[in-house]
Design goal:
Layout lengths: L2 H68 L2 H20 L6 H26 L3 H89 L16 H49 L8 H31 L8 E4 H19 L2 E6 L6 E4 L1 H18 L5 E9 L2 E8 L33 H11 L3 E7 L3 E9 L15
């Protein structure tokens, strides 16, 4: 699945998940609206009808009393109209799910309608005894029964309405609870899908970015942790990255082989040039005047610089190819440190730099190292320290014992190295951005050779630096170094 289709599927899934609670809430609200409408159209309407019916019965009672006293046709007609009105209201009650009450009230109203004409006639005939008897024994009891039935119906309707309202309140709370839970679950699920989408895309991209940065820093063997068999664009990028690093590694190998071969081939003609320059200096080919001598000295200086660079390149090539040979022998540490102190004392005085060598207690008397190589390493570190330390600064060589070995630290108060460049200072030809503070230009090979020599001794070398405050190189060496044989790909020197 491509990234575009994955994103589309994820967004559609999130949309569906988010729409689910909304649909549920809308359906619940619609159901509540239907229930509320039914409650309004049935129970509330029934309550209003019963109220009107009860008022009609009260009016009928008053009209019946008026007829007994007035004894005229007007009162009769009014009472007759009210009887018909109450009968119509009672008939309407059957539509509101109160069938028993509707039948009972209807029966009472029909009885009133049956006895009412006899009462009319007796009243109009001034037959008070018959009229009062009909009223007392028939009309009033029937009217009371109808009124009590209406009251019972109202109580029944009130109870039913109360129960339905309570049910609706429960339904509303249940809907709220379910909606809230559904919303939380939906948000959690949507967040999980969004996290999965983001993770599935950002993690490979972050891995590719790390790989690009590592390759830019010279780590050509870096392998991104992305399955190249993925069917999306990231899998294609991972495969392209692998192809790129493989090609870069091959190019780097070709470059190293070229440097090794070129350095070896350059060594012979440079030695020949230096040899002829020595013969010219000795006067074998005749005297050299002052002007020629100045040119001769410049050529000697440049030829020796070129020879030193070629030797450095050969050293790096040998160690990288496994052919850097060590010739360890017994070395007295005191003698080694004394020679270094004497060698750099004059330079310290010339440059007005405080230089001291500190020997800590517990140092071994002798070690088994390649003296020339170790001298080359420490000399290179001290030379760099003096090169980057201004007048009035300090250069310090501290030697202390560690478990099964010796640690040497070269500390200066010079320009320092930018933090983002510390991890590359041991790379070939790499020079930090502090070269403007150096007293002389370098080749960028000294630290690379130092690292190879120290590691060939079975030790390690590290660097700590604060920009503008100074740098400290620390190298740890075992007291005994195994003799290192020639490698399989030894470069001939």
């Amino acid at each position: 699945m491509t990234l575009r289709s994955r994103l589309a599927a994820g967004l559609v899934t999130i949309s569906i998940i988010l729409v689910g609670p909304l649909v549920f809430a809308l359906r619940s609200l619609s159901q509540l609206n239907d229930d509320a409408r039914e409650l309004r159209d049935r129970d509330f309407a029934a309550s209003l009808l019963l109220g009107r019916l009860r008022e009609g019965l009260v009016d009928l009672r008053q009209l019946e009393l008026g007829l007994l006293f007035a004894k005229n046709t007007k009162a009769r007609d009014a009472m007759d109209t009210q009887v018909n009105h109450v009968a119509a209201l009672a008939d309407s009650l059957k539509h509101f799910e109160l069938p028993a009450y509707a039948r009972d009230i209807g029966k009472s109203i029909r009885q009133l309608a049956d006895v009412a004409p006899d009462e009319y006639r007796a009243a109009l005939a001034n037959n008070a005894k018959v009229a009062d008897s009909l009223s007392l024994h028939h009309f009033v009891p029937t009217l009371n029964h109808a009124d009590s039935t209406v009251l019972r119906a109202e109580r029944e309707l009130l109870n039913r309405t109360t129960e339905r309202v309570a049910d609706q309140a429960i339904a509303i709370r249940r809907t709220q609870t379910v909606s809230a839970i559904a919303l939380v679950l939906t948000l959690v699920l949507a967040a999980a899908i969004a996290y999965w989408l983001t993770r599935s895309i950002s993690r490979p991209i972050s891995e590719l970015r790390t790989g690009m940065r590592s390759v830019a820093d010279g780590e050509l063997n870096y392998r991104v942790r992305i399955d190249p068999g993925r069917s999306d664009e990231l899998g294609q990028l991972a495969q392209s990255f692998r192809d790129m690093t493989q090609q870069l590694a091959e190019l780097d190998k070709l470059k190293a082989e070229f440097v090794s071969v070129a350095s070896h081939e350059l060594k012979t003609p440079i030695n020949v040039m230096i040899g002829y320059l020595q013969l010219l200096d000795e006067g074998v080919y005749g005297p050299v005047d002052d002007k020629q001598l100045e040119v001769h000295q410049t050529l000697v200086l440049q030829a020796n610089t070129l020879l030193r660079l070629v030797r450095h390149l050969l050293d790096v090539s040998r160690f990288e190819a496994g052919g850097g040979r060590l010739e360890p022998r017994t070395v007295r540490i005191d003698s080694l440190l004394a020679d270094l102190e004497r060698a750099f004392h004059v330079l310290a005085v010339q440059r007005e730099i405080a230089f001291r060598v500190q020997r800590c207690d517990g140092l071994p008397y002798e070690v088994f190292w390649d003296l020339d190589r170790i001298n080359e390493v420490i000399g290179n570190l001290l030379s760099n320290a003096f090169k980057f330390t201004p007048h009035g600064g300090t250069v310090e060589l501290t030697v202390d014992p560690v478990e099964s070995g010796v640690r040497m630290r070269v500390r200066d108060t010079g320009a320092g190295i930018p933090p983002d460049q510390l991890h590359r200072i041991f790379d070939k030809f790499y020079q930090a951005d502090n070269q403007a503070d150096a007293r002389a230009a370098g080749t960028g090979l000294g630290l690379a050779i130092a690292k190879q020599i120290v590691e060939a001794h079975g030790g390690s070398i590290t660097c700590e630096s604060t920009l503008g405050a100074g740098t400290t190189f620390s190298l740890s060496l075992p007291t005994r170094t195994a003799r290192r044989p020639s490698g399989r790909q030894q470069v001939v020197g």
